[in-house]
Amino acid sequence: MNKVWKLLVLCLYAIILLACSDDSSDPSKAYLTDGAACGTEDEGRYLWIEERKIYSLCNEGAWKHFSVPEHHPGFNPCQFNFGASWQAAHEEESFYKGLDYISVWLGDNSFYNVFEERMVETCISIQATPMIYAYVIAEFGKDHDMEDCDMAAKKEKKSLCEHGANLIREYFADSIMDRYQKYVTGMSDQLNLWSIDTTTYEPIWMIEPDFYQYSQTASEQSAEYNGVAQIDGGIPDSMMGVYFKQIVDTIHAHLPAAKIAIDISPWISDKDPQGLEKWFSNFDMNDVDYVSTSGGRTLANSDRIKSSNKATWADVYKITGKPILADAGYDAGGKGTGHAKLWDEVSNIEARAKDGVIGVMQMDADAEYASRTYYIRSNLNIEYPWCKSK
Description:
The chain is of the alpha/beta class. Helices cover 37% and strands 16% of the residues. The chain is built from twelve helices and 13 strands. It has an eight-stranded parallel beta barrel with strand order 4-5-6-9-10-11-12-13, surrounded by five helices. A three-stranded antiparallel sheet has the order 1-2-3, with no helix packed on it. α4 packs across α6 (160-193) and α6 packs parallel to α8. The protein starts with a helix and ends in an 11-residue tail after the last helix. Mean pLDDT is 90; it is low at 12-24.
C-alpha cells in the first residue's frame, strides 16, 4: 500500500511541475495567449506561435493571433517572390526552405560543376526555382587577367571597361559560347537524371550583368564621365543585341521553357533621359521575360533603383513592359554587406510592386529570412496588372 501511495504522490508532483512550467503562466510569454496585454516596447513586434503557420502580433496594446496562408514555393509572376543566393557557408536545405528561388553566379569555371549541381538539387527538393546570374563574359575576362570596372584599379589589373569589347570580338564565337553550351547542357543533363521534363521546366537565366559596359554607347559615356573607354571602341549597340540573341537561343535549345532576364544597368540614363529606351531597342524583347538589377545596392525605399542614378523602377517597367527582379545585400566585387532589411518591410515591398518589381534576391540573407517571409507575405496586399485577368 505504501508503494501505491508513493507512486500517487510522485504522479501528483509531476502534474504540479507540468502545470507550473506551462508557458502561458510565464509573463514573458504572454504572446502565447490571444488578447494578452503587451507593452509599448513590443508594439508592432511579431512572434511565432507555430512556426510559419500562426504568429502573434503586438497591436494596440494586445497580442493578437494571425494565421499565415499556405504558401507554395516556386517563382510566380503573380506574387512577390523572395530569393537568396546559394552560399557555400550554408548549403543545407533548411536555410532556403520556403523561399521562391535560389540564385547562383555562373561563369568562373569552364564547365557546369558540383556547386551549381547542389544548388539545383536543393531547388528541386524544396520546390524553389533556380536563378542563374550568367556572368560568363566578365568571368572569362578575369581568366585573362581583367577585373570588373570598379575593381580593376584596386587590383592593378586591366579593366573590362577598356578590354572587354576586344575580349568579346576575339572569343565570343568560340570560348564564351562554349561555356554557355556546357552550362546549359550540364543543367539539362542534371534535370534529366531527376526525371524532370526539360521542355517545361522554367529556371531563370539572368544574362550578363553589366552587358551594357561593352557597347559603343557605354564606351562613349564612360569616356566622357571617367576618361575610360573601350580600346578600339565599344561594340555597336545593335551587335550587342545579336550577341544577346545567340546566348538566349543556346539556352532555349536545351531548356526551351527557361525564362530570360536582361540586365537594367540603371546608369544608362545618366547622360540621356531616353538612354534606357534606346538601349533596349537593340534587343528582341519577345525573347525577354524579366528585367533585372545587379550590383546589390538597390533601394527598397525609393522610386530610384540606385541613389546615384536617374533611372526609376517605374521608368524601367514603363519602357520595357517587363516585370523587374531586384537584388540586394552586396557591393563592388560581390562582397556581402549583410541582410538588406529594408527589403523586408511590407510598405517598401508594396511600393516597389506598384513600380513593377516582382521579387528580391538577398545575396547575404540571414538565417531567419526564409521563416520571416511567411510573415511578410501574409501582410502584403499586391495585385499586378498582368495578373488581373487570371
